[in-house]
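We emphasize that the prediction below concerns an isolated chain of 733 residues; any contacts that depend on oligomerization or on bound cofactors are therefore not represented. The input was used exactly as deposited, without trimming of termini.
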Amino acid sequence: MSEQVKEANWSSRSDKLGEALLAEAQQLAHVGSWNWDLVSGTVLWSDEQYRIFGLRPQEMVMTYDRVLSHVHPDDRATFHRVVDQASRNHQPFEFSFRALHRDGTFRVVLSRGQVELDGDGKPVRMFGAVQDITERTQTEDALRSSERRFRAVFEGALDGMIVADNDGRFVDANPAACSLYGTPRDQLLGKSNADFAEPGVDFGGAWAEFRRSGSAQGTHRLLRPDGSVRETEYASTADFLPGLHLAVLRDVTERVRAERALRESERRVVAILESISDSFYTLDHQWRFSYINPQAEPILGRSGAELLGRNVWEEFPEAVGTAFDHQYHRAVAERVPVHFEIDYPPLGGRFSIHAYPSSDGLSVYFTDVTERHRAEEALRQSEQRFRRVLENSRDIIYQYNIATRTCDYASPSVRDILGYNFEELDAGGLPLVLTSIHPEDLERLEGRMSQLMTLRSGAEFDPVIEYRVRVPGQGWRWMSDSGTVVRDERGHPVAVVGNIRDVTDKRMAAERLRDLSRRLIRAQEEERRHIAFELHDEIGQALFAIKLNMRAVLCDPASPAATHRLEECVELVDRTIRQVRDISLDLRPSLLDDLGLVAALRAYVSEFALRSGAETQFVAEDDTGRMDPDVETACYRIAQEALTNVARHAGAGHVRVELVRSGSGLRLVVADDGRGFEVAAATARAVGGSSLGVLGMRERAVLVGGHVEITSAPGRGTEVRLTVPLALAGEGA
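Result of the prediction step, given as a token string:
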């Protein structure tokens, strides 16, 4: 009995141990078991199954309805259908569903079961197991998602993707790879890279090395069926799946062509930079020389080999803080090209700099413009001088466009002469000019314009024309217009460059000179008649009387009347001598040549006093000295003319003659207290040719650079004042 008890206890302990081990195994495997008594409706769950559903083991007695309440609502119909079908066909079953966990989440559960029948073949019990496959399901979902993503990437990749087996045969290819190989997918699969290799290229060694190393990358050329060649870059990974290898290929044909074209372009650029006349260098982002063309070397004073890789600011420290520094940094910082000119004494010249920022740094073109700058400065100074001449010229300097009949340029004096500025002249054109021309001169001027329009190569035109222009505030003024034709390279006239000068005063002076010449000729003739009268009526009569008396004496020397006749002859001779002296003094006083102006005037004034009977005063400094003979003659004749007018017209009681040489020049004054006269009227009569007195004095003064001023009024006497500048009065020989 004792042995039976021991055996029973041992059996009990073994069962409990087995159950414990089973429970532990179920927990480790997340596997629970269930048993459903179809007769009583009782459902028994293992502890692990309770845990799978988020329940405490054995916390409640389970029934079919309670089990169903822990199934996801969407899965309950399936759950019920599977159970019902198993009850009817008595076949084992397996399905998965989502179990509602106590924490509100759902766990994916795989359930397997079978039906137990009684002796009559009726189902009496179902039993089976459940396994929590949530993590496996998630992994499978992730795998499927990953596979979908891989396929999407594979199919949509722009790069070609090839999957090859251990023999290098293609087992899959994406559309980009088919396009790259120029072969449809169904024809591409089963081929290898050896089928697309150029003649003489062996892929065997490369494939073996790839299998050994597990990866490869590089470039190769694909010869496509149509004969074209594509340049590719590839990266390959061995055994990305068991027995399968992945290669990713990128078509770099265009890039290779671009790089080849870039290298060729760079070669051409270098050739150009080596041959251009400009000096050129490049700087990298650290301001180091990266290229220097041969033209830059003599200017920089260093060879390219010496400067390449060196910092520009360290090699040329004098440039720090100058425009080089500021402008180079500005170009790089603002990404804008810059241009400037700078004098840089360390290199001995002035330079024109063009700097352009680039992805590699800064490209600099520079030219020595020292000589050009000097020439420009000389030209600028010349232009300034020329402009000053133009702006200060009293003439109108102009350029007339023959084709447009407009004035391209007119100097500022156009406003003073014509009364309007260049802008008004440019706007109004030739019609504006013609409104200012004297009607009598319009035809000649328009004829000249027409002549310009019809000029042909080699033809000439009258370079000078004179016409009258109405000047504001001055009336009609005479202008002399002289021009030179400017022709183009074919010899056709395109413009006239000329100047317009106011010649009114010149014409009036010429007219006055002609009038004066006529009057002088008349005066000379009058003087000759006067001298002839003096010689004939005075001296001739006296000589004739002397001749008669002498003949009478010769006929009767002893006659008592002979002595009387001889005395009468002596008296006639004396009177003739005085008349000859007077004529001589009128023609040219010898004192003026021998003793000078002061002595000659003193003598003439004294004789004037005797002839006129007027009280006369002569004031002069004895040390006045000799002056230019022309000045002395002009002063003497003006004084002589003034005193003659006093004697003839003034009826003066007092006359004063003053000759003073001061710091500013020589001054001669002849003043009287006579009747006086209207100066303007006398001047008008002189201009009209009625008298030479006033006009003659003024013309004599002008000839020696002097000026005569006549002050007079009826009943107030007259003053004639001559002023000759000291520089013109001069010193006599």
